[in-house]
Amino acid sequence: MKNDLSNVLHIDLSQKRFWTEDRSELFNEMIGGSGVAIKLLEEECPKGADPLGPENPIVFAVGPFTGLYPIASKTVAMFKSPLTGNLGESHCGGRSAIAVRLAGYGAIVIKGSSETPIYLSIHDDKVRFRDASVIWHMANSATVGRILREKEAGSGIRSIMRIGRAGENLVSYASVVTETYRHFGRLGLGAVFGSKHLKAIVISGKRSIPVSDMKGYREIYKEIFQLLSSAEMRKYHELGTSMNVIPLNELGALPTRNLQVSRFELAEAISGETFEKKYLGRRVACSHCPVACIHLAALREAYESEPYFYKTEMISYDYELIYALGSMLGISTPEALLRLMDEVEILGLDAMSTGVALSWATEAQQKGIISTKETNGLKLNWNDEQAYSKAIKYIAAQTNDFFKALGKGVAYASSIYGGKEFALSFGGNEMPGYHTGPATHLGFLIGSRHSHLDGAGYSIDQKAITKNSKLTSEEIIDRIVEEEAWRQILSSLVVCFFARGVFKPELISRGFKTIGREISEENLETTGVKILKNKYRFKIREGFSINNLEIPERILQTATPFGNLSREMISEGLKMAELKLGST
C-alpha cells in the first residue's frame, strides 16, 4: 500500500475486521482533517444514533501538510458526543497525526462494539485486535501507557491513545489521553471508546511522503520554520497559554468560584509567571513543531509512608486547566492545583467540564439544593483540595446517582437537582475560561463545538476593549462566523491554531503547489464555508437549533469588562446568527 492521504482505514470492532478504501474525491474536495471527518461522520453515523451505541462511529483524520510542514500535527476526531447529543469534535497533538499519516492513512473510521475489552494495534497496513482484559479495569491511564509501550513495537514514532476509569464508566466528558500530556479532551470521546470496550489504540508507520517540487518545498518549509521561530510565537514557548491568567484577571474576565465573580484575588499565586519561576520542569513539543508550547511542572513531594524519600511528578498545565481547577474552585496554591490536574489526567477526564461541574456542585451545596447525602458525605467548599480530589474520584467511579448525574454534565445535573440558573453550560458543553464580553458568549453558543476555539469570540472582545469600542450584534456575528469558517481550513490542514497568523491563504496555496496540488486562495475560503455548512447540517439533523439555545443566567449576572450583558443583546445576536448561518 502506497502512502496516500486518500486511504481511509475502516475497522469493525463487532466483526473484528478491517479494510481500506480510496477516497481521493473526498480529500480533493474537503482537504483533510475536519473537512473530511465531517463528511465521513455524516456517511457513517445514522440519524438519531445513540452516542454510546455501537452505531456511533469514531472518525480520525489528518491533513495534506501532516508530516511535511511544521506544526501541521493535530489529529481531528469526530463522533456523536455523549455530552451534548450532537456533533463531537476534538483535536489532539502529540505524535498521533504523524503516526496516522506515516502508517499510510488520511483517516480512520471505527465502528461497532467489541463484546470483550480490546485494544487496536495498527502498524502500517497490519491491524490487530488485542485482548485488553488485563488492562481494562486499570484506573491510571499513565500505567496503561507504560504497559503498552513495553508490549508494542514502534518506539519513538508511535502514538498510544488510551482511556482511564472515567471512559470505562462512560462519564460523558471522559477524555482520551495520548503520549501522557496530550488529549482528545472535550465532548466525551473517552466515553465513546468505553462504550465500544476499546481501551486503547497503538499506531505507527514508517512510510515516506512524496513531494513533487523538492526545491520549492524546502523554500516554503524554511519560511514557515522561521515564522514559527519569531518573537511573536516565542510567547507560546516561554509561558504558553498560562500567560492569560493575570491579564484576564486584571480585565475582570477570569471566571472565579463558578463565575460568582470575575476576578480571583489569588490569581498571581496560580499564574503562568509563578509556575514558570517555581515549578517549570521542562517544555516539550508535539511532533514536527519548533514552538514547544507544552509546559510541564515538576512537583516534588515526600511519600506518605516514607517521609525521607521523595517523588517528582511531571504534570502538564495550561490556562484552561488553571481556570477550571484553579480559579473556578478557589484553589489558591500551585501545589494543590497541580495535584488536582494530575488526578484528572490519571482518571481520563476533561479538565474543563470537571472543574465547571465541581464549581456548580459546590454552589449548589452551599445554597442547600444538594446536601452531603448526595455527595457521599463530602462537604464541598472553595479551596478545599481534599474534598475536590475525592469528588473527582467519585465522578470517575460513578459512585451514586448524584455523581452519575454530574458525570453527564452540569446541564443534565441541574435539570435533575435544580440550580440551572448558575449551571455554566453552552449547548450542553461546559464553559471555557473567558468572560470577556458578548462575542465570547455568543461564540460559545453558536460555535460548532460550543468552544472558545470555534470563532475566537474572546479575541474579538479583547480587541474591542483595547480600541475602547463597542460592536453591534451584527458585527460580532459576522466576525465570529468569518473566523470559524477560516478555522475550518486550518483544522482541515490540521494546523495548530497557535500558528493561525503564519498559515495565511497565500502561503497555504504555495504550500499545496509543492506537493502537486493547485488550490487558490479563493477556493480555500469557499471550502472553509462549505465545511462549516456541513457541520451545521449534521448538527441540525441531530436536533440542534439556534432558536433553542439559552444563555446561563449567571453570565448575565456577573459583570464583564463591558459591564453586565443583557438578554436582549444575546437574543439579537442569536437572531443574526440564525440568518447568517442559514445562508452559509
Fold and architecture overview:
By secondary structure, the chain is an alpha+beta fold. It is 42% helix and 15% strand. A hairpin with a 2-residue loop joins strand 16 and strand 17 (429-430). The longest helix is centred in the C-terminal third of the chain and has 21 residues, at 473-493. 55% of the residues are buried. The model has no long low-confidence stretch (mean pLDDT 96).
Strand content: 15-25%
Determine the CATH superfamily of the largest domain. Aldehyde ferredoxin oxidoreductase, N-terminal domain
What count of helical segments does DSSP give? 25
The oligomeric status of these chains comes to: single chain
Strand order of the largest sheet: 2-1-6-3-4-5
